[in-house]
Design a protein that fits this description.
The structure is a single chain. The chain is an alpha/beta fold. The protein is built from nine helices and eight strands. The radius of gyration is 17 Å and the shape is globular. It starts with a strand and ends with a helix. 38% of the residues are buried.
């Protein structure tokens, strides 16, 4: 049995800018948002991003302030997705359809998104039917993506022959290696193929558009 743990943003889909939803979260948590503030979302957990917003606003990151920030972000996210220009990346529906039909594959998630944010994004782009959201690791509780990887692996059933982490950033490769998983990088996000090659991923493709090629690369042809 192969467990395939997918990142979401930049790997399965492009959700569009997350800035407006994070700005709504900042207004709820801090009463204002720094208009000139710029934060990188790529490869990071939502908890890490929330912590950076707290630091930028010189606010203590407490469990209560985190809850307010998270709830406001999740409340704003559906509207941001509906009004944005996001899209599913090439080949993803066909690949997930092929993988979900196999009895030797378990699909899961390894994403920095809050769990409810992950569910919202997958539902908006009609990809939620391919995943059991209980099989995965999410960015709710730690700023460290390696912690998310450990959480994802811990919920896998015993007896996996191979575990793959599939993502578009160096952080995906690093966290996969931290739990002994094989790593599969795709250059569909903000990092080039050359940049991803430097991370030492076990597999590297330009995108997921060729389902037979992806299956062969994973040893599933």
């Amino acid at each position: 049995m192969h467990a395939l743990l997918f990142d979401i943003d930049g790997t399965l889909l492009l959700a569009g800018s997350g800035g407006p939803a994070m700005a709504a979260a900042a207004r709820a948590a801090f009463g204002s948002v720094l208009e000139e503030y710029d934060v990188s979302f790529h490869g990071r957990t939502d908890t890490a991003i929330a912590g950076e917003y707290h630091a930028a606003h010189e606010a203590e990151h407490t469990p209560e302030s985190h809850r307010v920030f998270q709830e406001a972000y999740l409340a704003a996210l559906p509207g941001v997705l509906a009004g944005g220009d996001g899209r599913v990346l090439p080949g993803v529906p066909a690949l997930l359809e092929a993988l979900s039909a196999r009895e030797d594959v378990l699909l899961g998630l390894l994403t920095g998104n809050f769990a409810r944010g992950a569910a919202t994004k997958l539902s908006h782009f009609n990809l939620d039917r391919y995943f059991d959201l209980s099989v995965g690791g999410y960015g709710d509780h730690s700023p460290d993506r390696n912690d998310v990887a450990r959480a994802a692996v811990e919920v896998l059933p015993p007896g996996m022959d191979e575990v793959w982490v599939i993502g578009d950033t160096p952080a995906d490769v690093t966290c996969g290696k931290s739990v002994g998983a094989k790593t599969f990088a795709v250059a569909t996000g903000s990092y080039s193929r050359d940049e991803l090659a430097e991370c030492g991923a076990d597999l590297l493709l330009e995108d997921l558009s060729d389902t037979p090629a992806v299956l062969r690369a994973l040893g599933l042809s």
